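hiii, so i know i said id send this last week but things got crazy w the move. better late than never?? heres the sequnce for the chain we talked about at the cafe, plus the structure i predicted for it. fair warning i was half asleep when i ran it
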Amino acid sequence: MRAMEIREAGGDFTLVERETPEVGPGHVRIAVEACGVCHSDAFVKFGAMGKLPRVPGHEVAGVIDAVGEGVTQLAVGDRVGVGWHGGHCFTCESCRRGDFIGCTNGSICGVTYDGGYADYVVARAEAVARIPDELSAVDAGPLLCAGVTTYNSLRNSGARPGDTVAILGIGGLGHLGVQYAQRMGFRTVAISRGADKAALATELGAHDYIDAKANDTAEALQAIGGADVILATAPNGDAISGALGGLKRRGKLMIVAAASEPLTVNGFALLSGKTIHGWPSGSSVDSRHAGRTPCASARSRTCGRRWRPSPSSRPTRRSPR
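okay and structure toks below
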C-alpha cells in the first residue's frame, strides 16, 4: 500500500510503499476513502508529538475490510471513520468514569500510531465511529475532528436554545461551529477579521457578523447584548483575550483552539461569574452523534438547506495490497 510518512522532524512528506498491515485482536482495518488535513498534523510533521517516522492523519473515513478477533460490533463493509481519539484503555480512572477522551493511556490516530495518509489504517475498534450512508467520505472526514470538537463543546457549554453564542474565527473549526450553533437554536454570532467573511457567515447560518478588524470584539458583542457563550476556534491568544469582555455576566468562554500565545485575563472581570473553559474533541460516540445531528447530512424541513463541511479534495488512486 501507499503511505505518506514523516521521517524526521521538519522533513518533507515522503511517499512510500509498505506492506498492508495485518489486523490484530480488538482492531479493524479500514480501506481509506478520504482523510482530512488538520492543523494538528503539523505537530507530527515538526516532531512536537509522537515518534517518527509516522504517517499522520486523524480525519479518516472509509470502509472496514478486515476485522480482528474479539470485535463483534463492527463488520466488513461497514462505513466508518476515526478521529483524534484513537482508543482508550478502559481501566484508568478517567475511563472508569466514562471520560474516554481523557484516558491516561489513550491513543491518537496519526500520532501514536499510523494514520490516514495511507491506503489502509488499522485502528482500535472502540475508536471507530459509524458514518451515515447519506454522508460522503469527503464530507465525513472533517466531522471526525473539527466537527466533533465544535459540536461536542457547544452541547456541553450549558447554552440553551435562544441564548447568544459567538463563534470566534471562521476557519476549519469555526465554519462548522457556526452551522452547529445555528442548528442548535442559538442566536449565532460569527466573528472574523475582515468584511470579506460576512457573506460566508450569513450563508453558514449566522444571525450577526462582527468584523474584528474594524471593531473591538468585546464592545461589538456588548452592543448586541453580550454573549452567553463564546466558542474560540481561532488559535490566536490576543483575539481570544480580546473577546472575553464580550461575555454576559456568568457567560462562558469555551476554548477549542490550540493557541500558542498566553492569554491575558483581568481577574476582576471574572468576578461577575464569567468562566474560561477548555474542551477536547470527543470519543467515537461523540463523533457518531456529530455526524447524524439534524441537517448533518441531508436537507431538512427545519433547516432548508444542506449542512456540510467545506473541504477541498484531492483524489488518489488506491494501490494494490
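btw Residues 295-307 have pLDDT under 50 and may be disordered. thought thatd interest u
miss u guys!!
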